[in-house]
Amino acid sequence: MKNRKYLTIIIHLAAWTVVYFLPELFFEAPADSIFFFKRNLHFILVVLFFYLNYFIFVPKLLLRKKQIIFALVLILSLVFTYYVNDFIMQDVRQKYMPVRTYSSQEQRIHMQHRMERRRQAENMGTVVVVLIGFFISTVMRETGEWYIQEKQSKEMEKQKLVSELSFLKSQVNPHFLFNSLNGIYALAIKKSDKTPGAILQLSDLMRHMLYESEKERVDLNKEVDYLKNYIALQKLRLAKDAVIEFDVKGEVAGKQIEPMLFIPFLENAFKHGVDSEGADIRIRLEVKQNQLNFSMLNRVSAARQKDRVSGIGLVNVKKRLDLHYGDQYKLDYEEKNGIFTVNLQLNLKS
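and the corresponding structure tokens:
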């Protein structure tokens, strides 16, 4: 921050140095005292009103919608410039201009008119130069304010997205825990020997959720291991003839993804696709370069077909995909003839 402040000061000093020596770039500047005073006076007036406008007039008046007062201040500043320049330069000319003699009264009057026109032209020239300084400082200040507001707006939008993502992630954890505990409860009711192992597996899964789910991205291979552990936990409460397939193809190492993205699909499948007749859940995850394809198919139990309940999981994951991946994904899911299917295509570069 301090370096940026020093850089701004250096840029301003360099710019004003160029402005000061600008006359030498276009013509051979005279070495007389009158030109020296005139150039310095112009420079002081331009710098004075440039920074008055930049630091006071624009932020205090123009940006606060006080355009009429700003216009009056601008006019008064230009009038002030005209008369200050006229007063000082008249005094300088009297001191440094050589005394002229005229051969006739008519020649003297003619030269006086000529000098008056020149004086007025020089005063107006100073006003124009100061007006240019006003214009540049106004544009710079308004552009700077626009940039700051745009940056703040983007930062607020970013914070809003982060907050919403955090909220959606927080919904995943209790939803997952609720479904898992239901499964363990079913084992406990049956007094199954698998209950202690299920509790231990749930502990491992919760540890993953605790340390990984708060990250913006996680390794895809860790997420795949998490899904495998989740499936193993769910299978503890299912009959041996239940069909649960999880096929992973492609190189998942070195890829990263939004954490806990697939678990709502699996939760939905185990919640709605398991009944007294067993289960049929088939999951496929394939990575080709930076393209991930996830598909899932599960039979929907008769009871679930009647109430059409799908839970908050699918709505949650859709919102998270929108927030995190924008237009870099395609998600389709439907229930047809008692079969629920999910297809997700995801660009891992996003």
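(Above: one complete record from the training split.) The chain is about 65% helix and 15% strand.
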